[in-house]
Amino acid sequence: MHIKLENIGIIKESTIALDGLTVITAGKNNSGKSTVGKALYALLDAVCDLQDKAKKDRQYYIRKYLSDIENTLAIFLPMRVRRNQSPDWLNSYPALKMLFTGAYRKEYPNEELENYAHDLTDELIALNLSAPEEIEERNSSSVESKLNVAEEHGNHAVTTATIGNRRISDDQWNEARLTLEHLFVHLNKDIDLVDYARESINQTLRVEFCNQVQPVRAAVPYSMIELSDEGNDFFYVTIKDNKVVNDGNPVFFNSPYKRVYLVDDPFVLDDISMPGKSRMIFGLDMAGSDTLLNPNRIVSHNSRLKQFLKSRQGLSVFEQTVLDDSFRDIKAEIDRIIPGTFDFSPDGAYYIQNGMKLNLSNLATGSK
Fold this sequence. Notes:
Layout: E1 2-8, E2 11-17, H1 33-47, H2 50-72, H3 94-101, H4 104-107, H5 113-127, H6 132-137, H7 143-152, E3 160-163, E4 166-169, H8 170-188, H9 194-208, E5 223-229, E6 232-240, E7 243-244, H10 301-311, H11 317-326, H12 328-337, E8 341-345, E9 348-353, E10 356-359
Antiparallel strand pairs: 1-2, 1-5, 3-4, 5-6, 6-7, 8-9, 9-10
Helix pairs in contact: 1-9, 2-8, 5-7, 5-8
């Protein structure tokens, strides 16, 4: 397997073989050692468990849109002071009632949120239909047809939908309707996750390189990262203006790895007992991408490593056995140089040797 970099960071052009254990020997500062590690990490981490990440981000995306609709229908805002005294008319509109009370956040599991959004669409249309035939039409199973029916009869609709002693204006209803329409379009337009994978790689690279993926010293029109094996591409990423080029073509084809961690800072061991709250993105504009991707999920490699080190505390016996078996050879090499063992427990992280229990923060930098 090979990774090829052109105009990435300080590297003008380089192809590196990744066969078993690959060692990039020590070199002077700013020679590109860290660049190779960050580029490789960004590619692999961005697409690890891609389906699972996309599923969670899809749910995040739906919740964000539902929150927008909640704010759009400002008719409900004055009523929230009496959430326990919902108007009787809301009983005929259970989805709308859940929006009004905010109950959908707790009562609908993430995997059912999309069904709830469809139910809410039905009720919003029902509130604004005035002719009997329109009421029949709203039983259509297609969301698109429901929305079209409402538009076709728009000229005959009442100016406002009266519900109890309050009314939803056309502007409020239209904005809520369009918000739902956009939601369903976005949910269904990238089934193969081509755009999602591209944007995940794009934002992970930007976080790792602090939005300076391309050379700073000399302007170049394009940069490229390729990961391949015997003529088969796993990744082929073209970069312009420090962003992954979106020409409609996939940049991710397959990944031979399930997990990746980049260890380039021994001091990460000093604060793994501290919550990883910070996200150093250096003022990047992470919003507005036309994918389901949740940008809040993109974190630096050090933050990811801290999460992993702390998560090991909750492993099952089986998981711990598998990991111990996987890392036995690596641990044997470490023990040959640094005899002893490490203990990550709720009260801290320690290095233990001959009965001595030393906090990792106090371990020599070379040993870390």
